[in-house]
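User: hey, got a sec? need MATH domain-containing protein folded
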Amino acid sequence: MHDEGGEAETSSSSSDGVLRLMIENFPNLNDKVLGPSKRINGMQWKIMAMPRMHVVQKKGTMKCLGFFLQCCPDAYLDAWECEASAELRLISQKPGVNHFTRKTNHIYTAKEHDWGYSCFMTWEEILEEDRGYIKDGRVVLEVSVKAGTPKSIL
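Assistant: Yep! Here you go:
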């Protein structure tokens, strides 16, 4: 063991990161929103969110929050891949309410560079202030990413 000020932490932090996106005026959102990019293990990553119509079991077609993690390589080569696991969270803004969380694991490629949920939660559920996920029209999304080393697959 060594205790020289976090060398191991520095190396692990390069493959882990947290992205955050605050969406103001969420009830009126009608287009795709991209969060700021963050470099994790040599690749740029972003949150992508949008309203989506989705067939919800036993409820029919409903408006939902589409919530995705997007991998954005610096150079758009056709032959790359990067495996990542992620935890997507709708952040609680009410004491006593847990964040709403879903997990993913995916091999990101040029053809599949985003991955997540077309219906992370229904729009109606998010807009119910008692549930605690919206406050003053604002919703906060967060993703914890653990990214593998990107590979060229030429």
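Quick note: Helices lie at 7-13, 123-127. Let me know if you need anything else on MATH domain-containing protein.
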